[in-house]
Write a structure and sequence with these properties.
Number of helices: 23
CATH class of the largest domain: Alpha Beta
Shape: globular
Distance between the termini: 51 Å
Largest sheet: 7 strands, parallel
Number of strands: 23
Strand order of the largest sheet: 12-13-11-14-15-10-16
Strand content: 15-25%
CATH topology of the largest domain: Rossmann fold
CATH architecture of the largest domain: 3-Layer(aba) Sandwich
Radius of gyration: 25 Å
Number of domains: 4
Structural class: alpha/beta
CATH superfamily of the largest domain: P-loop containing nucleotide triphosphate hydrolases
């Protein structure tokens, strides 16, 4: 066995990869691992990654080769990489592209399957969940009905066979979308190199291999601009799905500011307005609304109302289950997913891969920070103790109640006092999950509060005042987790979160990542030695993988 003690990696036989965080090459090796493995635990000195089939297939679809992975593991490992692991990596990643889905040359109702070998075809024919979807296509071929395109890919992935979909797309109604040369403020509109590259990787010059998939970029990196560049390539009617009404308004503003489209061509479809235009921006909430659990979804018809050439899924990691169902029926339309993280708390990353498409492009957050495209951010975990006998109440509480008690610990308010005095000249967001806690904070500091119950127009007014600097402190609930453009916010204080949600942690940090001269600060207030501290470690995983480190600070005793 070759032993290289100066290397930072240990690859175990079970597929786990251990990385020393104090190693001089840590950052480069971390970026290498994050392209094809998932971070599982991140204690201070040794991070644990696991190689999954889906992470390998996403790596393959974004251009990473088997040789890059195998050679990199060998180069950085302290010991010889277990042969079983190398074999598993090779066999798994090579499965991407063994099964292709093609347009049928003679029958428009069918899609033809192409296999690299007869042996692969035989194995696919033996998959029980897939067998019922297969159709004899002459003596030499197998096919599926066009309407089964989505469910076929879902079932194949579940069986360990990622399908490369080359069946092409229905052409939507034409729309002459061009990017603007000058924005409304008179400044030139420039698309950054990585934004243009990501749109190119997604579109692939209009070939059937492109036109579907996911772009992964940090909050503040301009995912909206990527979508506008993609729309300008497709030049067809476009439906955009966003997380809430404020995000819809933001999309409409950006499109009108950065393209040649007029107000008569861009519409919002929300609970308040129902304008279907050449480019329509809708909320996930309106599409999944129904009068009762037994009723039909009243607005899913929006997918079929127009001959859309492109559907954009903003924050695709939040795609609701009913929209997955509709997306399975829309495999003939071009699809673009945008997200800061492919992590889904419901474990349906495979459905994003199958139905929206594989990862086409991503870029490490730290890389964009180093280039000045997002703010340099420092993350702090501030550990807070109990006061006035609250620790005893916590110990006596039911297990299901302990997290909430730790999250709304009143002692956090004294720590918040200190932080707000420290940052009184800054633009501060206080973000939380529990409304009683947020109302108390709003009263304590006489600051405006935005929750899910705040009417859309009032939200827009408050966000607008914050952008202009008329408000320096804004208290926000989970509604501000997603797609809110607050470019001058440079401090975020998270007083409570949703259990171990990695995606929420990433989105909340994203609220302060717009480029700014003096960087950004992200504080997470955690009650010491409680369920909240356990969940905090899980929440921080994704950001740790992106290169952020949490500095531990002690708050009150």
């Amino acid at each position: 066995m070759h032993v290289r003690p100066d290397n930072p990696l240990i690859v175990q036989g079970d597929g786990k990869v251990l990385l020393e965080t104090k190693h001089p090459q840590y950052e480069g090796v971390r970026d290498f691992l994050s392209r094809f493995a998932e971070l599982e635990t991140s204690p201070e000195h040794l991070h644990t990654y696991r190689i999954h089939p889906l992470t390998l297939w996403n790596a393959a679809s974004s251009g990473m080769t088997k040789a890059e992975i195998v050679d990199g593991l060998r180069e950085w490992s302290k010991f010889d990489v277990p042969p079983d692991v190398l074999a598993q990596v090779s066999e798994t990643i090579e499965r991407y592209g063994l099964v292709k889905l093609l347009q049928h040359p003679d029958d428009r109702k069918l899609l033809r399957l192409e296999f690299t070998t007869a042996y692969v075809a035989k194995l696919i024919g033996q998959v029980k969940t897939v067998k019922e979807l297969l159709v004899e296509d002459g003596k030499r071929y197998l096919a599926i009905q066009g309407g089964h395109r989505g469910i076929f890919k879902q079932r194949m992935l579940a069986a360990g066979w990622p399908v490369e979909d080359l069946a092409g797309f229905i052409e939507g109604d034409p729309l002459d979308i061009q990017t603007a040369e000058v924005m409304k403020n008179g400044k030139p509109f420039l698309i950054r190199d990585y934004q243009r590259t990501s749109a190119d990787r997604w579109f692939q010059d209009g070939r059937p291999a492109g036109g579907n998939g996911v772009i992964v970029l940090p909050c503040g990196a301009g995912k909206t601009i990527v979508a506008i560049a993609a729309m300008a390539k497709v030049k067809q009617k476009t439906l955009i799905l966003a997380t809430n009404g404020a995000a819809v308004n933001q999309w409409v503003r950006e499109i009108l500011d950065k393209t040649n489209l007029t107000e008569g061509q861009v519409g919002a479809y929300t609970g308040d307005t129902k304008n279907i235009r050449d480019v329509t921006v809708a909320t996930y909430q309106i599409l999944t609304w129904r009068q009762s659990k037994e009723a039909q979804f009243a607005h899913l018809h929006l997918f079929e109302d127009q001959n859309w050439g492109l559907i954009v899924y903003d924050e695709v990691h939040l795609l609701p289950a009913p929209v997955f169902g509709a997306t399975a029926e829309l495999q003939g339309r071009r699809r673009l997913g945008l997200t800061a993280t492919l992590v889904r708390e419901d474990g349906r990353e495979g459905d994003v891969f199958s139905l929206v498409g594989p990862k086409r492009f991503d870029m490490a957050w730290q890389s964009l920070e180093e280039q000045g495209f997002i703010a340099e951010a420092k993350c702090y975990e501030v550990r807070v103790g109990w006061k006035n006998g609250a620790a005893l109440a916590y110990e006596k509480a039911r297990e299901g109640e302990k997290f909430r008690l730790a999250a709304v610990n009143p002692a956090k308010l004294e720590v918040l006092d200190t932080l707000l005095k420290r940052h009184q000249a800054d633009n501060v967001l206080v973000i939380g999950t529990y409304l009683d806690q947020l109302h108390e904070i709003a009263r304590r500091y006489k600051a405006p509060l935005i929750t899910g119950e705040t009417p859309g127009p009032q939200r827009d007014v408050l966000f607008g005042k914050f952008r202009k600097g008329e408000i320096k402190l804004l208290i926000v609930s989970k509604v501000a987790n997603f797609s809110i453009d607050l470019p001058d916010a440079n401090v975020a204080v998270q007083v409570s979160g949703s259990f171990g949600s990695r995606q929420e942690e990433a989105q909340r940090l994203g609220r302060v990542l717009r480029p700014k001269k003096d960087g950004a600060h992200f504080y997470s207030l955690i009650t010491r030695e409680t369920k909240e501290q356990e969940f905090a470690m899980k929440r921080q995983l994704f950001l740790t993988e992106q290169g952020y480190r949490y500095y531990i600070q002690e708050g009150s005793n």
